[in-house]
Amino acid sequence: MKKITSRTIICFLLALILLAGTVLFTFRFFTQGGDWVSFPSNRHLYTDGVLNRGRVLDTTGKVLAAYDGGWTYYDDSSVRKATLHAVGDPSGAIGTGALTQFASRLTGYNPITGADTLLSDGRDLYLTIDADVCAEAYQALNGHKGTVGVYNYKTGEIICMVSSPTYDPANPPEISDDDEEYDGVYINRLLSARFAPGSTFKLITAAAAIENISDIDQRTFTCTGSTQVGETTITCVRAHGTVNFEEALNVSCNAAFAELATELGSSVMEDYVEETGLTDSYSINGISTAASTFDFEADGESGLAWSGVGQGKDLVNPCSLMIFAGAVANGGKAAVPQIIQYTAFTEGVRTSLYIRRSTSQLLESSTAGQLKSMMKSDVENNYGRSNFPGLDIGAKSGTAELDTSDSDNAWFVGFLDDEDHPLAFVVLVEGGGSGASVAGRVANTVLQKAVQAGY
């Protein structure tokens, strides 16, 4: 009797294990089946390691890449270079490219019929980017390394995603490991990289000050061109005299924001980089962005002061900064970016639906409103509204000093306060120098093109 009982228990446990395994397999089949099918060793879908079906199109219907016995690309080399990091190349060297990241969508895979569907030549994958806007951004960078991102902060659609250096996927160059011209070419700088943010980070310090210093709007700061914090001297580009909180942001006074950061303290600053989403890794249709990193306790009070003005140990992902700008414009939260518009049969019948997602509340609505007003004041009183004709823009520039280079990185981040054109943007020009004059010009050029196109 004891043997029967023991055997019954063993059989029951084995049945449970079998059931659990079946449930796990079924779950993974439906959630990961597309990745299994599109693995490069699948000879039905890959020829010599290259995906052999599908087309990639931009939001206007331009065919950016198509398979016809081999991959062919759009006939304009500027478009090909501008969209490389969105489209990818057949070898898979560009990790964020559609040919790599969205192979299962290009094959037309679904859990019922697999990849061998009615149309064996795959699917059309429509991206949200506009190829002409991307080409405008690529040309505006004028050979500099860097990135330009523009997206609709209400819908999440990425209109422009350009990363430089780049190359022509139709005529890929031979790139050696020590080739400075192509240093970092395989990295999508918008999604996958981190950089010292310079004065753009003062927006985060400002948000923390608004919510934690009760008399911040009555405060004044006296800037003599520098201020002493511990054993470190925090310098400004010039003596700003006596300025209030909004004016301190307008003139980008390092002394004022170093003072605010040390008053707020490292724990509050840590809280705000988390609350504002900078340390999050966002999923862009399954592509994970790099999370920004900070260390406000390194080097004591002087390190905290430098971090508060965007230097120190601050490293920010450009896409996260763009999303934050969208949240400022949109009452404290924004849509999560997406790069896929939809997939379709070649006849145009849609085969997918993508649901818009929103961030959490990154800022209190009142804080977002005040920052929005301050950023628009920045344009009015510092950058000059005439430099952005026809655009109702709010922005913050940044000039990030680098230990590894004599040339500063130029930043410009902001939004359009326009119901018809709800766009947030980020521009980084590596080695560009002044954020406002260099990155600001790039931003204006790209935004004018995007608005003209109706985004």
Model description:
The protein is of the alpha+beta class and 455 residues long. The chain has 14 helices and 18 strands. It has helices spanning 2-37, 77-82, 84-87, 98-101, 103-107, 131-141, 202-212, 245-250, 254-264, 266-275, 300-308, 318-329, 365-383, 435-452, and strands spanning 46-47, 50-51, 55-57, 63-67, 71-73, 124-127, 146-152, 158-164, 220-223, 226-229, 232-235, 241-244, 283-284, 287-288, 340-344, 393-400, 409-416, 423-429. The strands form 6 sheets. The protein has a 5-stranded mixed sheet, with no helix packed on it. Strands 8-7-18-17-16 form a 5-stranded antiparallel sheet, sandwiched between helices. Strands 1-2 form a two-stranded antiparallel ribbon. α7 (202-212) packs across α10 and α9 crosses α11. The model has no long low-confidence stretch (mean pLDDT 88).
Indicate the percent of residues in helices.
Answer: 25-40%
Q: How far do the termini sit from each other?
A: 77 Å
Strand order of the largest sheet: 5-4-3-6-15
Mean pLDDT: 88
Q: pLDDT below 50 for ≥5 consecutive residues: which ranges?
A: none
What kind of sheet is the major sheet? 5 strands, mixed
The beta-strand count equals 18
Give the overall form: globular
The class by helix and strand makeup works out as alpha+beta
Computed CA radius of gyration, to the nearest angstrom: 25 Å
How would you describe this structure in keywords?
18% strand, 455 residues, 5-stranded mixed β-sheet, alpha+beta
